[in-house]
Amino acid sequence: MTDPEEHAADLPECTGGGLLPPELRAWMLVLAATGAVEQRLRSVVKDTLDVSHDEFLVLCLLAEQPEGGLRMTRVAELLGRPKTRLTYQIACLQHAGLVTRRSVCGDKRGVEVALTDKARRLLEEASRPLAGTVVEALARFVGPAQREALCALVPDLAEEPQE
User: What SMART domains is this protein classified in (predicted)?
Assistant: First the structure.
């Protein structure tokens, strides 16, 4: 496995002494690390599933739902996406045969989206390699500074779990 400190140096160092309080410096370290992981995942998602990263996030969100789907407004809310952008992404996923759309019973304006069987099969096949990509990227980009930043933001992470 790759030495995390080797590539963590690629990320910006927030050593203090600047204008930002420690919590914001820590958050910037976390964002830089997650951004690096996301960039790596983007290309693998495109090669593996032939969807955009944002479309992949929609698929993952829907995959975590028990039978059925989610209202589009809820998907937009959970992913922090504008509804108009989500409408386009859902249309692309529907065109690819990966999601279905239907009206919500009793609500003319409500639209629910759900995964198709095709999407479920694709996600089952691709999940392990994609998870491996995330783990590999985290190992590459999360070094001591990022771990320390996470522990500073969420002090409970530094504590050992009680059994």
Answer: HTH_MARR
Q: Give the confidence band of 95 by pLDDT, cuts at 50, 70, 90.
A: very high
pLDDT tens-place string over residues 99-139: 999 887 777 778 999 999 999 999 999 999 999 999 888 88
Q: Is residue 75 part of a domain?
A: yes
If DSSP states are collapsed to H, E and C, what string results for the chain?
A: CCCHHHHHCCCCCCCCCCCCCHHHHHHHHHHHHHHHHHHHHHHHHHHHHCCCHHHHHHHHHHHCCCCCCEEHHHHHHHHCCCHHHHHHHHHHHHHCCCEEEEEECCEEEEEEEEECHHHHHHHHHHHHHHHHHHHHHHHHHCCHHHHHHHHHHCHHHHCCCCC
Q: Residues 69-85: pLDDT tens digits?
A: 899 999 999 999 898 88
The range of the structural domain enclosing residue 132 comes to 18-146
Q: Do the domain assignments include residue 39?
A: yes
